[in-house]
Amino acid sequence: MGHFERDTAVEPDGELAFTCRIEPGWCGPNGGYIGAILSRALAAVGGERPAAMAMAVLADDREESLGFDRSEPPEVSPPEELEPTPRPKELPPFGGHFDYRFALGPPPFSGAEDALTGGCLRLSEDRSLDAALTVALTDSWPRAAGPVAPARPRCLASVHGRGR
Fold it and tell me: Which of 9, 36, 90, 104 is the most buried (most CB within 10 A)?
C-alpha cells in the first residue's frame, strides 16, 4: 500500500459512517485531499467507483464581459521530457506529495506579469489513477493567477459523485 492509499483510507464506523486520519503532510488549503477521503467512503458505500464528477470554480463579478480565446493550444513537450520542479516554498505541504512539471508560463509565486500556467502533475509515488486520486489532482495545481497575484483568490471547487 502506497502513502496516498494509506493517507486517504477510511474505516467503517457504523452504518454509513466512517473514520479516517487527517495526515499533517497533506495540510494546506487542499480540499482535494479531503475530497479523496470522501471518495473512498463513497466507494465503500456504493461498492464501485463514483459514476459522476463535476467541478466548478466561482469568482467575484468582473466589469468586463466574458470572452473566449479560440486560439490553438500551445505546443508543449511530453511529460517525460519536462524537468521535475522542486516544490516552491510558497506551496503548502501537500505539494510535496506531487511531481510538478511546468511547461507554460512563469514559475508559480514568481510575481511575473503573465497569469499563465500549464504542465503535468502526478502523484510522486507510482500508482494507478482512481476516483480518489482524480479528486486530489483537481485541487493540487497552482492557480494561474499565482505568478501575478500571490494573495489567495476566493474560489470554490466541488466534486460530486454517486455510487452505481
Answer: 36
